[in-house]
Each structure stands twice: as C-alpha cells, then as structure tokens.
Amino acid sequence: MEPLQGSIYPITARVPATLDKGYLKQQLIPCDLIERIRGRLLFETAIWSIDESARIASGKGRPVELQMH
Questions:
Q1: pTM of the predicted model, to two decimals?
Q2: Rounded distance, CA 49 to CA 69, Å?
C-alpha cells in the first residue's frame, strides 16, 4: 500500500536488483541543469538558505522566495 501524500513516511528508493547502463542513464541529470547549478544557482540557493535561516531564527518577517536568474 502506497502512503498518501502528506503522510509522514521515510522515502525509500526503488532500486532494481541489477544496475545496468540503461538504469544509470535514466538517473543522469541533464547537462543544461548541471551547468545552471554550477553557474550561479547553487551559490544563490545557499545565500537564500542562510538568509532564510537567520530570518526564521530571529522570528522576523515573512518567507522570501528564491529569485532564479
């Protein structure tokens, strides 16, 4: 039985018994996304996360959305 969305269950991986090239190829991250992450997205996300953590810890304001560039 599959858990309902919103229920608290640990995420479990569905890994096949045999890991072949076809399975690994399906799991690859697209090259354009890798370039975007390596570009500025990872840096911007880390800065946003630090700022949001500080905001939450101080109890101030509303959440700020991450601006994707």
A1: 0.45
A2: 16
